[in-house]
Amino acid sequence: MQILMDEWNIKPPSWVSADPCDGWEGIKCTNSRITALVLADMGLKGQLPTDIELNLSFNKGLTGQLRASIGKLTKLVHLNLVGCSFFGPIPDAIGSLTKLSYLSLKNNSFSGPIPPSIGNLANLTFIDLSDNKLQGSIPVSNGTTLGLDKLLKARHFHFGNNQLSGPIPPRLFSSTMAMIHLIFDRNNLSGSIPSTVGLVQTLLAVHLSNNMLTGPMPNLTGMNSLNYVDLSNNTFAVSEVPTWFSTLKLLTTLMMENTGLQGEVPRALFGFGNLETVVLRNNLLSGLLDVGNSSNQLQLIDLQRNFITELAPSKEGSNYTLILVNNPICEGSQTNNYCIVSPTNAPNEMSPTLSNCTAVACPSGQVSSPNCKCASPYRGTLVFIFVSFSNLGNFSYYRELEKAIMKSCQSFNLPVDSVSLGRPSWGSSFHLELVIEVFPSGDQVRFNQTGASAIASVLSNQTLEGRPIFFGPYSPAGSNKGLIIGASIGGSVLLLLIVLVGFYALYQKRRGDSPSRGSILMTGVSNVSGPQLKGARLFSFEELKKYTNGFSEENDIGSGGYGQVYRGTLPMGQTVAIKRAKRESMQGAPEFKAEVELLSRVHHKNLVSLVGFCLDQGEQMLVYEYVQNGDLLDSLLGKSGIRLDWMRRLKVALGAAKGLAYLHEHANPTIIHRDIKSNNILLDKDLEAKVADFGLSKSMADSGKDYVTTQVKGTMGYLDPEYYMTQQLTEKSDVYSFGVVMLELITARRPIERGKYIVRVVQSAMDKSKDLYNLHEVLDPAIDLENDQLKGLEMFVNLAMLCVDELRAKRPSMGAVVKEIENIIQISATNWNAGANSAATSASYEDVSREVSKDLYSVLDYSVAVQGRR
């Protein structure tokens, strides 16, 4: 234990006696022998020892590789390393832990294949290897080797968000399995879903979304226990709606977005008494939609971007939300509720108490518990991979989960008075996020470190007794250590942060307009260091309020999903644009930090410059150079009053391309923008293009690869399909988005307009044997075909279609795009009069055009909605 104290740099106050079994916090002993350490969420740092039983979840400082000697822990029954920083392969020796019943290595950086030896763990009831970087195929036994098909007792198969590839082996499934969760979402799996999955009659949830699965739609007939099915974003063969839709009588959630479904939705589907959520967006469903016999439980039917033409009358008293945006039935009229995307029904509060007590006013740093006692709770966030309901405002669901968590705390004799869940919201990929508060019992007003660690340990165990089935697996994240340790510590730390930032702001104000360097503290943000600044100034709220005349209406120059943008004037006369976040759409601390740090260190004439930022009085604001002529989208739509002729459009494309090329090829480390679109390209007084909005940008620093594995974010219509399917982000993802912007430049059409994807529209209209590739009907009418002399248009189209090639390897680099646009501009500016010069130029044009288009392939007809900033 002394070695561990030195290795992990910890020594809780109770670790003072010579005998660790004499009241040491987190130590469990049997007959004076240490049998387990419960040290979850203790801020441990160092590496993993190999001769003790451990629950070390949520210690980000624990790193290194799992050593093969872990196989010596033959008495280990529970191994939980959730949320640490281990990397490298999972050792094959883990198959020696034959008594293991619970294995969770979730949310680390493990790579390499899944060890086939795991099939030797016949006592496993729970296995979770999700949110890592595991590669290769799913291992199954073949007579000489082991595989996952041998885990007959395992109820939970959680392998989501890795890089697994190849087909799902038919041998993986058998009728003797106890599996209830089959989760392989967000991988690179291909081939058909084997019919043998139907042998596992115990399955409650099938989650195979966001892979590259093909072939026919699987037949799930007879799987009568299923209540959750998500097969979204796979490339199944286009087929009629499967008949099994209408046979799964316990189904609560059906999600099959972007799966090639066509034909009418069967009326019988909506009659099941348990059905709550149906998401069939972005398919080919058509004809009449009849929801007349819907159950009283139905909450959401989302059929955006289909071809529904008729709607039968709904049953009287129905209370579900129907979304038919971008269907023919909504064209020409937006007056119907179903043609408008409704706001979320999530309340921004903790769940109201059901007790008979009256909430009391509490001292600073404490809140009233469900039993109306003032205390500093353990607070964190639970992120659920799936839930089988849509009404976030129905607190009865959360009550059942509160009871399950409370029961688990009681089974471990933890000093817990009550549990409260609330503030539900939809995070990325339709994941539910819930704030949890756990209150101490008795006269305690705060948990000590032992209690907090024990609670973290309970929450890391995803097999809570009595847990309601409509909640899927979750990840505890973002625990508030200040409140865990207590109000005295947490309050003083928060006060210290506020005081420091207050002094820093005063110091900055006294410095006037001089730039700040170094780092600052971000108030109200836990576990996030301040931005590393190079030349960006920290403004106070009162300063920016003064510079915008109180954020007056006359200084309001625009708005977006992020918030309002105001024009301001600094004391030295510089005009700036101040982007002020709305409360409900403020970036997370990492995203805000990323944008500030990135903008403060990149400098190029085709990138919007950051002047400063504000983190004061609960506000998030970014102060940019003022770009006079707004965004490219407004100009293309005729809202800015600026006419963009052909040559101006080429120069706009060149400027934006140069800005991106700088990020990809000259910034150190390389930066991927991740949200290139026409309204993130601004035009200055000379119509010079400047790339803006770096809130989603990713750095390639320390990736060690030519891609970054990351959660998919972006904007519908601009998203690189290969990035979406693999979660592997590269510079070529920006190239794809830029190719869509190029098509916007020649058509003035949005990427997805009335259900039609711009890439497919141009591709379908193209005929290279005809003048201007036969694109007259899709070109922007504002382009004067007579006077603009669209020389180089065909080359521009060829280049755009290369940029949006479905295979990233076929797309050019942004440096190559810059050179080609420069060449097109030179050709377009050439005097095309008759004569020798004309013939020579024409020949040169043909040569270049052939060079650009020789590798041009058909472009994927791809359109998908991605949760992210628009």
From TrEMBL:
UniProt-recorded Gene Ontology molecular function terms: ATP binding; protein serine/threonine kinase activity
EC class name: transferase
InterPro entries with a match to the protein in the record: Kinase-like_dom_sf (IPR011009), Leu-rich_rpt (IPR001611), LRR_dom_sf (IPR032675), Prot_kinase_dom (IPR000719), Protein_kinase_ATP_BS (IPR017441), Ser-Thr/Tyr_kinase_cat_dom (IPR001245), Ser/Thr_kinase_AS (IPR008271)
CDD domains in the record: STKc_IRAK
Topology of this chain in the membrane: Single-pass type I membrane protein
KW Transmembrane helix (keyword) present: yes
Listed Pfam families: LRR_1, PK_Tyr_Ser-Thr
Domain of life per record: Eukaryota
Assigned EC number: 2.7.11.1
Protein name: non-specific serine/threonine protein kinase
Source organism per UniProt: Rosa chinensis
Lineage summary: Eukaryota, Viridiplantae, Streptophyta, Embryophyta, Tracheophyta
